[in-house]
Amino acid sequence: MTNKKYKEPKLEEMETTINLLYLENILSIYTNNVKLQKRLNKIIGEPRKESTIKGAIVSSVWDISLTDERNKDNIIDTVLKI
Fold this sequence. Notes:
Blueprint: E1 16-21, E2 26-31, H1 34-43, E3 49-53, E4 56-65, H2 72-81
Antiparallel strand pairs: 1-2, 2-4, 3-4
């Protein structure tokens, strides 16, 4: 794993969005919270998309298949604890 550089958002701009895509059976997680991004990287692995500004990661998106039971409860617990 490479050493990634993250840009911390202002507290009032910090957000995490969880979408349940029923038709596709996907749990989609978007966040710009650096602590959560690092934890999800460890649990889930690389995100589907990382947005960067001047080489620093500002947000990430993960798509988790709901048909894959791998760590699903652990992932949801991690997101809810932040």
